[in-house]
Amino acid sequence: MSHNNRITENSSIIQYLMKLNFALYFTKPVIRHILEFIIAATQKGYSGTVTDIVNLSLANCHRTTFGKFLSQGVWNIEYAWRAIRREVIRIIFELSQTSNKPIFVIFDDTIAEKTKPSLQAKHTIQATGFHQSHLKGKQVWGHQLLTMMLSCGNVVLPYCIERYEKGGKSKIERICEMVSMLPIPRGPAYGLCDSWYINKKVIEAHFERGYHLIGALKTNRIIYPQGIRIQIKDFAQYIEKNEVCLVTVNGSNYWVYRYEGALNGIDNAVVVLCCPEKAFKNQNALHAFICTDTELDTETILNYYSQRWPIEIFFRQTKNNLGLNTYQVRSTKSIDRLLWLISLTYLYCTTSGDEYCKFGQGIKIVRKEVQKQRVQWLYERANNKVPIDEILEKLQLA
């Protein structure tokens, strides 16, 4: 694969794609377009458009060619996701075995916000609608994206991103189906989520695959201390200082109270009531968390829950760098394929080296690699006495 001789077969990007067995699933033209996306999406100035992909990758094709690759290209998105999931599972499960650390499955949703089209618009982005943005506290127009990531230690990798469409399966149903795709762990493993996903069906789906669930709880949730039915926020007002203990999580101190028993819809679990050290009995500062593993101590539950935060970082990084919030393709098929390409690019940036690195560091390494390949290509053209006009034309600078 020459990529017009600007990226060679010895490129680490090509080698990485071959390691994932892409040659078994995709034709050379498809792999070339995947390569073009990774190159473009990791460059400075990428804003998520197809035009950016063509220009920043220096692809010798028109933007409509890449657009057709997304909307009409003959390649199987399910095979593509299997390749990613297989690699993520391999990395995370091997790390868990060697480090003796638990595996975490982090899931959440985010909004890829779009501009609402006018009534006269003829070519609109498909499947968009109003969704509640917790970040903005209001309804926004766009796509809601369900995301699942696997992590162990400091390694956090994307496992699945998909659009949620109203009118189809509920988010709870889709999360349960995603969990059913998870491999059975050999050691401790936990699902991590916010309060929206704390549901008996989600808990049972985790149990079936050998995972416990840790998540946030709304403070109006009903618990039954000593058989009394009461909301968490009301119960917290009866808790005295001698019934709580001070716990340090990520350098901050919190007063915590541990309840074990029934909740509405859940037979038995640990509920941790938590507030900052200087805000004891301040109802506005009260937070609650649930853990189905009753053998975990309170401090460990809170520390494990804090491992959920990387998914928020993932959303921010992919929106700011890889076009998760700014893509402009219109068909649902193109959007779904673009979500896979974004996940693959993130995976490449973090795992293509000899060891795992943070995304911010990884994308800088990829940029340098691409620039070296381009300089090498120019050097070879000069040594072969290729006319400058021909070089400028291939670089789209003529």
From TrEMBL:
Residues 104-347 form the Transposase IS4-like domain. One of its GO terms (biological process) is DNA transposition. InterPro entries: RNaseH-like_sf, Transposase_11. GO terms for molecular function: DNA binding; transposase activity. This is Transposase IS4 family protein. It comes from Thermoanaerobacterium xylanolyticum (strain ATCC 49914 / DSM 7097 / LX-11).
